[in-house]
Amino acid sequence: MVARHDLTTDPGLQAQLLQARRGTAFFARKLNELTDARLDGDSLLPGWSRRHIAAHIGYNARAIARLIEWAATGVETPMYPSVAVRDEEIEFGATLSPIALRNLFDHSAVHLSVEWRDLPDDAWHHTVRTIQGRDVPASETVWMRSREVWVHAVDLDNGATFADIPEPVLKRLLNDITGAWHTRGTDAGLVVKVAGTDSSFGDTDAADPTVVTGALAGVVRWAAGRGADGVEASKSSVSTMVPVAPKWI
């Protein structure tokens, strides 16, 4: 009989799976609140309608499910043949009828959840490869999905904000984003501070950095390239214009 609960016994992984599923439910709620006509409206991402967001999230679940199948079977099944194919798939998905687009999201989300559920403990350590070419353990797919559903729920521009994203997700997002900047060397002279904490990210060794400060949700929103509301910037302790955040992904 197929298990009706996650096979993994790792408490940390179980908590991450719960967070990803809650993010999926949150995205589903914001998507379902939209009428079919409003799906045609603009999202918060330049050049993408809400249809593009929904299609992306649906196909992303299928792509991550392929990685879990890879981990389970040992047979290499990439997320996508190429970035170009992924982009073409999203463009096609955005042309689907509203009911087909909603079904794509619903069915792909269930499929991914079941693939996660039935993956045994040892297989979570098997190596798979992301679309960016990174070799990661299968357990990383849970964060990959969690990040997508929480952030893109905001991008639907249907009332969700970064303040709706759980604090653990925001913290990990900020670590991911600033880590990507550091790897590329694009954070030179830039420091990010979370108000009310001792947390600082970026080029903390810079002699006179531009310091961007704000509450956690506002700082992550800015760092993710979604606007500067809720943050302020200073240089030599003097207020200055908030810079455009370096590219994240």
Q: What is the global morphology? A: globular
- Strands in their spatial order, largest beta sheet: 4-3-5-6-7
- In the CATH hierarchy, the third-tier topology of the largest domain is known as Four Helix Bundle (Hemerythrin (Met), subunit A)
Computed over alpha carbons, the radius of gyration is 19 Å
CATH class of the largest domain: Mainly Alpha
Q: Which structural class should the secondary elements be placed in? A: alpha+beta
CATH architecture heading of the largest domain: Up-down Bundle
**Beta-strand segment tally:** 7
Count of folded domains: 2
Low-confidence stretches: none
Q: Find the CATH superfamily of the largest domain.
A: dinb family like domain
Helix-strand pattern: HHHHEEHHEEEHEE
Helical content band: 40-55%
Major sheet size, sense and barrel closure: 5 strands, mixed
Topology:
Blueprint: H1 11-32, H2 50-73, H3 83-93, H4 98-117, E1 127-129, E2 135-137, H5 140-155, H6 167-184, E3 190-194, E4 200-202, E5 210-214, H7 216-223, E6 231-235, E7 238-240
Parallel strand pairs: 3-5
Antiparallel strand pairs: 1-2, 3-4, 5-6, 6-7
Helix pairs in contact: 1-4, 1-5, 2-3, 2-4, 2-5, 6-7
Overall description:
Strands 4-3-5-6-7 form a 5-stranded mixed beta sheet, covered by helices on one side. Strands 1-2 form a two-stranded antiparallel ribbon. It is globular, with a radius of gyration of 19 Å. A hairpin with a 5-residue loop joins strand 1 (127-129) and strand 2 (135-137). The protein is built from 7 helices and 7 strands. It is of the alpha+beta class and 249 residues long. It has 2 domains: 11-160, Four Helix Bundle (Hemerythrin (Met), subunit A); 167-240, Nonspecific Lipid-transfer Protein, Chain A, CATH 3.30.1050.20. The chain starts with 10 loop residues before the first helix and ends in a 9-residue tail after the last strand.
